Amino acid sequence: MIDTQTLVFCALALAAGCFVQSTVGFGMAIVAAPIVYFFEPRFVPGTITLVGLVLALINMWQYRAMLSIKGLGAAFVGRVPGTMIAGWLLLYISSQSLALVLGIGVLLAVAISLLNIRIKPTNTSLFWAGFASGLMGTSTSIGGPPMALVLQHAEAAKLRANLAGYFAFSCVLSLVALTFTGHFSWWHFKYGMLIMPAPVLATLFAYRIQHLIKAEWLRYALLLLCSVSGVIAIWQGVSPYWV
After folding, report:
1. Which of 154, 137, 157 is nearest to 23 (CA)?
2. Over the stretch 74-103, which tens digit does the pLDDT of each residue have?
3. Quick one: angle between helices 215-242 and 4-24, nearest 10?
4. What does the radius of gyration of the chain's CA atoms come to, in whole angstroms?
5. Contact (Cβ atoms closer than 8 angstroms) between residue 206 and residue 18
6. Has residue 117 got a pLDDT over 80?
7. CA 78, CA 171: separation in Å to the nearest integer?
8. Nearest to 71 by CA among 130, 18, 13
């Protein structure tokens, strides 16, 4: 049994993360995962991934008119080998080393974006974004930045819709893999459902205020979250050598 106080803190952390993702387009894991891990490590990654799937499905429905599943096809295709190759690489190199390389890559991509060099969302760029997302998501549990960087110049509703569609696909893949490896079970599902109301309410509240967020603010918020995720990945890569 998990005590009520722990559940409340985890629910609030996930609510904050879902609020950020529903307004910006991604960021739930960046905000929530460190806090949830502190209070209940067993919720990471299984329970967080379940909440992420529900959040993605809600956002997909909310922005369904702007969703382009066909346009995301290349990213879906790229995600699969990215995930598989990351799993293979982790057999030979540490997750910390891989996280370090990917974190530096994300920060370089943010720097390029700040120079107003546009990365057009073509099939090729979406494939490689999906591939990089699979690598990063498998090694650091944060796979959103590559897709966010490619889609950053899209209209706000289209950005949120297509990121949600991509995350729904990614979460399903992750949950299947976690189930087969014993990291997602009825226990994770049960507690995920217990804390789900708070994230859902936070998501619905985000819909009420997101019209106040200007498109330029949204882009810079995306770049800020990408930068944070890159720093987190680098920290994961170097921290074992400093402890």
Report:
1. 157
2. 999 999 998 888 878 877 877 678 778 878
3. 130
4. 17
5. yes
6. no
7. 15
8. 130
